[in-house]
Amino acid sequence: MTRPGVLGILSSIRQGLSVELDFGTHSIEALVAVAETVESSVYDPGSLTLVGTRLSFGLLNPPLRVGAFSGVALRCDGRPVAPGRGWWRPGGSGPWSPTSSVSTESPLVLRPGDRTEFAIDLEQPLGSGRLTVRLELTSVAIPPTVWMEIAETPRPGPP
């Protein structure tokens, strides 16, 4: 039995090898550089904050990618965030919505220039140090899943 996502990973590897064979390794290096540039321009640097057991961060939503997403998954240090513990809100103000409420019928839409915040209600307080937070967005278009990882030490947030 194939786990979800394994076929997508294998497909990505196959496509990468195809690009390398057709265009050379410099093309692969250029694609990686573009991906890193896009990721660094989407994440709001230094926005990873921790208040009590709530970890939050923001996306800047530059006009590089407009997207409607039918699913959101979060991970903290490799551990999946349980349904009901992930949150999002557009614009950095207003009410939070659970990530579990995102669906094909009620997609999460990232509009250019509109900041979006995400939060995780942790099950227990964290120690100090560097964390890796992974945000996975299931797209209603192609590619089916896009993701980014934030690896930094959270700063204390406002009470």
Q: Could you please describe the fold and organization of this structure?
A:
The chain has 159 residues and is α+β, with helices and mostly antiparallel strands. It has two domains: 42 residues, no CATH class; 113 residues, Sandwich (Immunoglobulin-like), CATH 2.60.40. It is built from two helices and eleven strands; from the N terminus they run ααβββββββββββ. It has a six-stranded mixed beta sheet with strand order 6-5-8-2-1-11, with no helix packed on it. Helix 1 packs across helix 2. The N and C termini lie far apart (47 Å).
Quickly describe the structure.
The chain has 159 residues and is of the alpha+beta class. It is built from two helices and eleven strands; from the N terminus they run ααβββββββββββ.
Strand order of the largest sheet: 6-5-8-2-1-11
Percent helix range: 10-25%
**Structural class per helix/strand content?**
alpha+beta
Question: What is the arithmetic mean of pLDDT?
Answer: 78
The CATH topology of the largest domain: Immunoglobulin-like
How many alpha or pi helices? Answer: 2
